Amino acid sequence: MASRSALIALLVLVSSVAAASAVTFTVGDTSGWTLGSVSYTTWVSGKTFAAGDELVFNFATGAHDVVEVDKSGYDGCSTSNAANTIQNGPATVTLTSGTHYYICGFTGHCSAGMKLAVTVGSGSSPSTPPTPGTGGSPSPPSTPTTPTAPAPGTGTGTPGSASVRLTAGPALAVAAAVLVKLALF
Known about the structure:
five-stranded mixed beta sheet, three-stranded mixed beta sheet
């Protein structure tokens, strides 16, 4: 009976690891979603985004907003065809597959560089974990760094960091199935 309980506990642990695959990215790292101090094109380069990942836009309410637009809205800094506008900061957006375009809708902010284009994979295949050194800091994408773990009790990493993506493949599914079968017999 004790071994059965141990197997069930192991199954729960394996399931928890498989579920912890989303990554939280702080847009602009420690600078946040702000005017003039971050190149968001540089910030996004070298990162791999998957469906279910989250973008956190840190900004003061009333100073900026986050407007999701289409490609032409992004290119022309226009909010006329906005899909969504978030006016209260900080704002968290959960990513879905495809390319997403975000701009600041305050007059002159987008044209001054407050715009972000993010291409998101399906999340079904293993992807490269983000490299925090290529975050909001304008450091070269090739700078090797080690991701930091989330701060205890916060659910997110330290400012400027992203949690490590854990990928679960067929081997994990087979291991879970074997554990369930062993637990039942």
